[in-house]
């Protein structure tokens, strides 16, 4: 069992804005931005050297783009497809990006590969909103900081394989509040974690716990945990 440290994922944690120093020595934390902090954990299928599960977090002006990709199958061919999708997404520079367009961009990029399943999320701080869209079975959920008796809000998934065939794409937008936590997991994670999620303040610890406790032995597993911090204004 191997749970990655965030540092090993640094190449895909891209920040276009200077990240706030988290200590006096100016040390930068790549998993923290002005509007959110996040954690990532993964486990590669035993016997494979390369995971087909990838993630991307891109900090944009006043926004944060999140993606989790599961390349079809496992091993190098799955990893290649997932890598291509992440590269297609990594060029996003504007918070006005359309998730619809991003999926279509990935679809073109993945033609001729095994394809993959992708879920995307875009937090807009000024609007306190999350827009999300999923093709395939990368599950998404929002755990509310102040929760009622209902469970997490779940991402509505549509069947499809990016690179092969797409369902009708309809992004949904919901309101989020500071402290709300967005979680994406690949199908290598048993989704029962959604009913049993332990309260934990640290996103990285939570991501590791999800993969450790709910990761299946039969597939690559990945959990991305993003905690929204707010837009820095009193009205947030
Ligand atoms: Mn999988």
SSE order and pairing:
Elements: E1 13-15, E2 36-43, E3 53-60, E4 63-71, H1 76-90, H2 99-109, E5 116-124, E6 129-135, E7 139-143, E8 153-154, E9 157-158, E10 172-175, E11 181-185, H3 193-196, H4 203-214, E12 221-228
Parallel strand pairs: 1-3, 6-9
Antiparallel strand pairs: 2-12, 3-4, 4-5, 5-6, 6-10, 7-8, 7-11, 11-12
The structure holds manganese (II) ion.
Distance between the termini: 40 Å
Counted up, domains total: 1
User: At CATH's second level, what is the architecture?
Assistant: 4-Layer Sandwich
Order of secondary-structure elements: EEEEHHEEEEEEEHHE
> Helix count, per DSSP?
4
Tell the overall outline. Answer: globular
CATH class: Alpha Beta
As residue ranges, the low-confidence spans are: 1-29
The share of residues in helices is 10-25%
Radius of gyration: 16 Å
The pLDDT mean sits at 85
| Strand percent estimate | 25-35%
